[in-house]
Amino acid sequence: MLQLAGRRLGREPAVAGDPLHQHRWLAMLRRVLHDDSLPLRARVAAALVLLYAQPVSRIVRLTIDDVTDDETTVTVQLGDPPSPLPEPVADLMRAYIQSRQHLPYTSSRSSQWLFPCRQPGQPMNPISLQVHLREIGVPPQRGRTSTDSCCGRTPTPVPAPVSAPVP
């Protein structure tokens, strides 16, 4: 950015309402799908933000009963009808639901919330989930305004360059 006598010229840094550009959105989605070093909970939440434009406050209110797996298709009740998850995201969701049995807090393991908190019977705080998303490089508000997110519609299959494993 160029500064002249107290004036700045050039593009201001991205703000929360700016949409993500396609290459940035694809890079984030690819990382969420394939980077096993990232926490699984954050990866699943990020996929829902990026693909379905769901606000974090809605994601933390999902329950285990909102996810259906008939061994062929995994759906999430984001509206009516339920939204099918594309295959790489479905695999993440299956792995996440399995991993909940190993959560460190007994109250979290038995919780009906898809994203439970440490408090018995309570969902994760939306602000806490926003922090987790930012830590893995997914800005929750900008992810929702992506020029490529599906805005709640059933997504087309995840593009091959994104769903293919990283060599």
For the largest beta sheet, what order do the strands appear in spatially?
Answer: 3-4-5
Structural class: mainly alpha
What gap, in angstroms, lies between the N and C termini? 36 Å
The run of helices and strands is EEHHHEEEHHHHH
Rounded mean pLDDT score: 77
Helical proportion, percent range: 25-40%
Number of strands: 5
Radius of gyration: 17 Å
Biggest sheet, open or closed, and with what strands and sense?
Answer: 3 strands, antiparallel
Proportion of beta-strand residues: 5-15%
Layout: helices, strands, pairs:
Elements: E1 2-4, E2 7-9, H1 22-34, H2 40-52, H3 56-59, E3 67-69, E4 74-76, E5 83-84, H4 87-99, H5 106-109, H6 126-135, H7 140-144, H8 160-163
Antiparallel strand pairs: 1-2, 3-4, 4-5
Helix pairs in contact: 1-2, 2-4
What tags apply to this protein structure?
globular; 40% helix; two-stranded antiparallel sheet; 167 residues; mainly alpha; three-stranded antiparallel beta sheet
